[in-house]
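seq:
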Amino acid sequence: MTEFDPSLARTERTTRPHAVVIGAGLGGLASAMRLGALGYRVTVLDRLDVPGGRGSALWRDGHRFDLGPTIVTVPQVFKELWAATGRRFHDDIDLRALDPFYEIRWPDGSRYAARQDPDAMRNEVSRLSPGDLPGYEKFLKDAEARYWFGFEDLGRRSMHKLRDLFAVLPTFARMRADRSVHAHVARRVKDPRLRMALSFHPLFIGGDPFNVTSMYTLVSHLESAFGVHYAMGGVAEIARVMARIVGEQGGLVRLGAEVDEIVVRGERATGVRLAGGEVIDADIVVSNADAGHTYQHLLRRTHRWRWTDDKLDRCRWSMGLFVWYFGTRGTRELWPDVGHHTILNGPRYEGLVRDIFDRGALPEDMSLYVHRPSVTDPSVAPEGDDTFYVLSPVPHLGHADSVDWEVEREGYRRRVQETVERQLLPGLGEHLGAQEILTPADFGTRYLSPFGTGFSIEPRILQSAWFRPHNVSEEIEGLFLVGAGTHPGAGLPGVISSAEVLAQLVPDPAEVRA
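struct:
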């Protein structure tokens, strides 16, 4: 629990309207900061014992395992959030620019290092496929145009009214939002390695690159325009500071407090009921829980006309994640060519994605995302040691013949280790130390994520913007939603922006009475 004098909340009970925020993930904490700046008295409730949700961390034998996101791609959304509370982000958080952002490796031995420097990137493209350089330049212009429309316009305002959708349809049509990211990239470059390198980014937010709208090519512009950064102390440090700020604003962060139900009287949310039976009254309720969990469980006894159980079951959900966290002993000087982020490609791209998203099958081959934060932040490991995590996209648990992770867990870990040891970290097994594993089953129990998904509802075109669960609930008055499952979507920029949208929608606290 953050440091806060509960007597302050009692004395302000009759003077400041009360907002309850369900979930101390990054979206929930950002919402609490925004609400506190507007003048609300805020209580944040989370079932975990640390703030941050998927952005939290575990410590094992001196190793810090950052459980979720590892990079900051749009620092200005954090700067603006801090500024809304009268603070400076860089006074609290030490961001380090990464160069390269990541290195992609293919089975044929070729490599591609993503950097912010435009000349360096042109050299990378020319080295792989000289004939694709003109198409690459066109792709960058496409990505920038989609950034200004998709992120700075759509992503930072509400899309909860049908007229909002109609207003943007002409731009969607002009930019061919119906075309997938991969289909768009394929029109610009021919080399299959470049097509992968320029189209895989939707996987970072749970999307199938062969089906997600081409608007998400904007991520390439985010990288080139703003760089890719690592927060010293990890994203968990950002969450810790956010929770502290909520306390400094006069709010309360209660950990180990699981919300079991949103209390509804008439057609209005009036508070929450905890798993132990305690009822907390509120003038508004903000849910940072997964949108599916919010509607299917927290409102299970409330009539819903749009986000019914059947509707949610028919949604396309993001893939699951298998994440192996491990420490290594005496390796700080080993593997000098392995940087902060490495992507290891398997022999297939489209076929692998189809297995994971469509067939729901656990493939024999794999592509892996390897995180080695100790090359940037030595505090993640004991002196001379390293900390890693290896992430493998896998099917979520909602497919007809879902993976039994109790059976597959250790066998799949061994396969991941064999792949990493063969392709990236020779001799890894001789240095292994502390370890942890998260499977989709763990995502379901730890984060209450429907079907154990890594990123909630998949951001296909008919599950984006107006089609996504709205930031202001269509079902219940006084209920608002933030985080990965609502507009604008998953990823740190998305969940932080959802709090910005929230601040535009909540009633003026001066007009609210408890």
